[in-house]
User: Fold this.
Amino acid sequence: MALRTTKEGKRNVHRVTLLEGDGIGPEVVEAARRCLEATGVAFSWDKRLLGETALHEAGSLIPDETIESIKSNKVALKGPVTTPVGTGFRSVNVQLRKILDLYVNLRPARSLGINKQYERVDILVVRENTEDLYAGIEFGLGEKPTKQLIAMVNASGQARLTDDTAISLKIISRRGSERIIRYALAYALKQGRKKVSCVHKANILKCTDGLFLRTFYELAREYEGKLTVSDYIVDNLSMQLVSRPEAIDVLVLPNLYGDIISDLCAGLIGGLGVAPGANIGTEVAVFEPVHGSAPKYALKNKQTLPQPSSRGY
Assistant:
């Protein structure tokens, strides 16, 4: 993957799609843009619309022009976007990742001196970004496909579901597991990390999380003598993170656990406001803050904000 660059005089200018997003997004993105430009690297910003702002101005949450810009430039800097809770449209973040096949979500958590209780945190969360419950395959209460699925489950003898049931499918594939685990192992070695741990609930979810765990240990054989590998049941990991986070190095997780655990790790270092995120595919990458759009704080340009919601990430 390479930045789209052009020549201006004697220097390379890197063209990057700029997505301000919603709520506090424009202020957050502007601060990030100024930091990037202060490095001395030359950028050309291709400003595009995304989220509720795009819906109001262009009639689409994710305009085609925005997708084409990201594909052309290869890299985007993105602000937070609003996601309704419980009702309304599906997460724009999730849709964007699926459209661009951004299967890797990197969320590093390193102590910055903000949270004095935890001063030796240096954790890299590698989250699968396209599958699991975030695939968004749902069957609503009372709908015909829901009734058909309930009948099929009941006929299998695995459970007795009642008619007042809604269903979401947890999707874990061999392909999806392989590529995120391969990325985590290779990236850990490249970054000089020592240990990679797989996070799961395979004691209960033997088919889905069991597949993810088995795939991890199969692929980890290729790194014998180079990396130490282990695994954690996700609830045990939560306890370990708040009691001895310095023992955790690199974590590779399915989508939902990765979302929750990365927020926990953010809490160890000072909150979501200082937690970065990168969404990476084979062709493009989108960099973003982890927190939500916090619309009630928009246009106030506050340097210190209460923890914004991370809805739908």
The first helix runs from residue 25 to 37. The two ends are 24 Å apart (CA to CA).
